[in-house]
């Protein structure tokens, strides 16, 4: 949880920024104009399994402007990967219904894509809109679709299943609930307004009809854009600065790390990516018993400002060899930030867009809270898997987190105008 951040929506990425697009002026929907008429104007560090760095916002955005943000549905890549983190998110996995196959899956993806396009533009859904988001603009809504390993057997498309979608191996830190893991289909929903996000979740569920049923669903949140007086990296539920960097599109190898190349295999995954999804519970009672110094040694960064224990500011490069007057490493050998650094992992990097979650307090007064970890990469077998194995062998953070659910999904490239997501797979 050390070297990942929680970015907020803005436009082009620069140092430390993950978001790519949706400043408020990017587009205002008809519904927003109607709704505001007459108004007065206005990365948990890879909690247990990530590498790469997430972003901090590059500009403060007034809360009153959030509704105007609009992300385009059609494009080279699906929305929800390159944009900054949204304030509210829902993750939901579906299994195809008994008897449903390729034909039903294609019809479902066509419906879902149409619904996503409309909702992301701030329009009502085509069938039985619930009016939950009637008064709001798009609020930077993104809806992203992926296919799980089991989807290909259910649809008779085993020969099109990517090798990179092979099931993740078992890790020693896993305490996985199979009922809340994997799935035939996966949908990621994010927005900067909770009602807009829920509206999208409800519309997607309704449009599934008899073709698919919900397997599991999780809710998350991040800091709202404009919540701080000036741009700064957000904190995770452990109170730690949650990252300072993330792979940036300006880096020459960014696309190679995050997206499947246009001439890659299989062809239908061109410009797509692979999402690893992990529900990581933070053992907050145990964590909060540590002194600030002990917490900093676990992470390898100062809690106050996110600077490395080797000195400097938040963005200063970590000096892994620097010692104190007694010869002790300033950044402990098992510090999370040390283990997850790309230069300690053969350059492996993942683009992270997590959500925090809190699902209540159990009978013993223990909070069920933590991170909905989502990372994007061109090949999880070269990104997430080797880093998680290394974390298993000695990450100081592992004593304070528990991986409780897991999924791996192939997320195809964006749909062109007139197409739906996954069309090349389902009609190829």
From TrEMBL:
Its main location: other. Binds 1 heme b (iron(II)-protoporphyrin IX) group non-covalently per subunit. Transmembrane segments: none annotated. Its EC number is 1.11.1.-. Keywords: Heme, Iron, Lyase, Metal-binding, Oxidoreductase, Peroxidase, Signal. It catalyses: heme b + 2 H(+) = protoporphyrin IX + Fe(2+). Residues 78-222 form the Dyp-type peroxidase N-terminal domain. Residues 233-415 form the Dyp-type peroxidase C-terminal domain. It comes from the Bacteria. Belongs to the DyP-type peroxidase family. PANTHER family: DEFERROCHELATASE (PTHR30521:SF4), DEFERROCHELATASE/PEROXIDASE (PTHR30521). Involved in the recovery of exogenous heme iron. Extracts iron from heme while preserving the protoporphyrin ring intact. This is Deferrochelatase. It comes from Streptomyces bullii.
